[in-house]
Amino acid sequence: MRKKTIQTIIYTNNKKKIENMGNVSKWFGINTFNEEVMKSKLSKSMYSKMKKVMEGKENLTVDVANEVAHGMKEWALENGATHFAHWFLPLTGSTAEKHDSFLTYDENRKMVERFSGKELVRQEPDASSFPSGGLRATFEARGYTAWDPTSPAFLIEDKSGKTLCIPSIFISYNGYSLDQKSPLLKSVDVIENSVRKFLDVFGIEPKKVLSYAGVEQEFFLVDSLLASLRPDLTICGRTLIGAKPAKGQEMDDQYFGSIKERFIEYMRDVEHELYKLGIPLHTRHNEVAPHQFEFAPIFEDVNLACDHNQLLMEVLRKKAKDHNLFVSLHEKPFAGINGSGKHVNWNISADSLNMLDPGDNPHENMIFLFFLTAVLRGVYEHNDLLRASVASCSNDHRLGGHEAPPAIMSVFVGKHLTDVIQKIINNEFNEVNVKELINTGISKIPKITKDTTDRNRTSPFAFTGNKFEFRAVGSKQSISIPITILNVITADSLDYMRNILIEEMKDSDNDILKSIYNVVRKVLKQASDILFEGDNYSEEWRIEAEKRGLYNLKKSDEALKRFTDDKKIELLTKNNVFSKEELHARYEVEIERYCKEMLIEARLIRDMAQTIVLPALLEHQKLILENLKLIKELCQNQNIEFLNLESTNLIKKVDKILLNISKIDEVIRESECETNIENCACICSQNLNENINNLREVCDDIEKNISDKLWTLPKYSELLFVD
Ligand code: ADP
Ligand code: MG
Hints:
This protein is an alpha+beta fold. The chain folds into 3 domains: 31-179, Glutamine synthetase, N-terminal domain (Ubiquitin-like (UB roll)), CATH 3.10.20.70; 188-240 and 264-578, 2-Layer Sandwich (Creatine Kinase, Chain A, domain 2); 593-719, Four Helix Bundle (Hemerythrin (Met), subunit A). It has 26 helices and 18 strands. Strands 9, 10, 11, 12, 13, 14, 15, 16, 17 and 18 form a 10-stranded mixed sheet that branches. Adenosine-5'-diphosphate binds next to strand 9, strand 11 and strand 14.
């Protein structure tokens, strides 16, 4: 079966013809209700009102909502859609949509298509099946989706039609957020507020303050026929069993290599769909591991970047089917092979002023230095929260395993910036060279830093010239919570530092540059403990980080717990990004997901071991025993010592496999009986994890040592090299 499948793949891999995309800029965003379409569908006055709503300058009124809804419906009908759906990001980690038709009866019981402002603004899906962490008692199933006018509506195409999707937030009957997007949107306001207050000190009043994200998405592609023979890949997105192949990624012949025909066809098809959705994909390349790839769009404001990344993941899955491919967005699909992450490039800009770009004049340089210090302090004070924001069962295989980046959150800024920071802390700048630092010094940094930064791929959070790159984010998670946390901790530090700055200015006759220098110096003295330029995998760093009081939360259950710490609750509730109840609820949802995922893996690997590996092993043993019998009968003088030994070994393996299965069964039973979810998580992270690994070790050993003919699961060499 396995071999036949491989032959089928090789001989029947028909090339799918991708239609010529032509001049993409001419039709880019054709499936979005973008500003241009809106302009053509609304009256002039309504359009200008709607623009103000989108910019957050005016509240939405009924007449505007009605006209936008009408315009949206007209556009959707013209494009062949019959239904609309509020599209939202519940706490399940994926997207949700409930389709409703535009059809309704008019006053004369005649069928017409209608879409009112009321329907556009709010929908009421049955919320009872979405996770809520207890925020929505089961008797109160109501939840509301509310239109987010800052992210354009779009048409999702399937083979038989189109659906109008309206980006929305999802809240409970009593106003608690039940989705990924609400906290993100709130955090955008929080950081905007803090940046404005800070820039006010300089007399700068920006029109817009935006947080931006550029998301590099990694993923693996496997032939779907092969994947279908692997229950672990199809169900968990990762292989639970699989021996190390003779060739892995050691030849370094994959990274940036030419993309094979089959995969580039798929990638073009994905791009085609995403361009129609107005997603500005920019980069595509092979990643380090075989069959691993990356897509990255041009950065956008975080709200759009979040929706677009979610759509990218959906389209990756959808299009894979058309190309007989299976896409794994799991953080660690293959043991011993690089995992996948989602590098989130992040910065804050006030109009054209990028807060993380050392500028051309003294003020811009000082703004940069102040802002940089605020980020460093934020990460230093709340490194646990950043770790928690990327916590999941699957991401633990990267962060908690021997893979970049580690679970200790630290910041890499490059040698030149480190030198500047060190000099500031040591107060090595005198009257003259402070001026020099301010006037020219920092502005020289970006180019040099950019060049050196990428050399440290082991850092979870790296400064890359004019932005930070958060590399610990999991490949399949939403970027929403990591960015929410970044925005909040930076805003908190900005406020803290601004208060000291105001005092400093009083003491220094309003010498703003000198005051900033002093504040930065004071804060960096402590916060610079978050800086680390060395090898983040090393044991020395683990010891040093512990001395510096940084968290090393290897397992997600410990990391998630930080969301319920009093100080963290205070920080996150202060600005209403979360309420205390929401934080507890999210913790509960995440920890429950953590347990469920691990239990699914445990059940699956024990089933695979029992029903696939063990029968193959017994079959192999039968062969050996038959062989032994034959040799004994036919060639009595033959030395059969090695066969005897092999047979004894096999019996030991059978024992081992049965023993490990029974251990897993026991822990599964124990965790299923546990009613307290925290205790359940503890059992999973401490016992189940280890047992899964132990059982895997036996299975992998068997794979390597029994007849290839008897092994039915496609091997790593096939999953990763057959195309
Ligand atoms: P790499 O890290 O692979 O060298 P880049 O750093 O150039 O690639 O870009 C990666 C991502 O960072 C892209 O999505 C890009 O649009 C985004 N990016 C570039 N500049 C910024 C910025 N100022 N703010 C946020 N994201 C940015
Ligand atoms: Mg990058």
